[in-house]
Specification:
By secondary structure, the protein is mainly alpha-helical. Helices cover 84% and strands 0% of the residues. The protein has helices spanning 2-17, 36-126.
């Protein structure tokens, strides 16, 4: 950019020196071959580059803010998902424990019932 600015300054100086030239200012050319229109366009490009740079910085800042917001939302969703997964795991664990306890109770009751029936059968045979 410094080179482009130096060309503009040199060109402007050469145009001012050639002020008695009969060509219109728009068609005057410098030693480098640039016309005034080229220089105006170049100046606009340089200005656009600076404005574009600030706009790009603003856009990057907005993107960073959006990214942080998205990460925050993702973290809250992830925390809720972990919480619900833990609740589901607790419910499943409690259900498995209850099923196991019922199975043990049924097994013990069956064994007691079989012992009672065996004792009754033995008593019947002995009598």
């Amino acid at each position: 950019m410094a080179v482009k600015l130096a060309i503009i300054v040199r060109y402007t100086a050469s145009i001012e020196k050639a002020g008695n030239n009969k060509k219109s200012p728009a068609t005057q050319t410098s030693k480098a071959g640039y016309t005034n229109m080229d220089i105006v366009g170049l100046g606009t490009n340089i200005l656009g580059a600076f404005c574009g740079q600030s706009q790009r910085a603003h856009n990057m800042q907005m993107m960073a803010t959006d990214y942080q917001n998205a990460q925050t939302i993702y973290a809250s969703i992830d925390a809720q998902a972990q919480k619900s997964a833990m609740e589901r795991w607790k419910i499943a664990s409690d259900t498995q424990t209850k099923i196991f306890e019922i199975q043990q109770e049924v097994t013990v009751n069956r064994a007691k019932t079989q012992d009672k029936m065996f004792n009754k059968w033995c008593d019947y045979i002995k009598s």
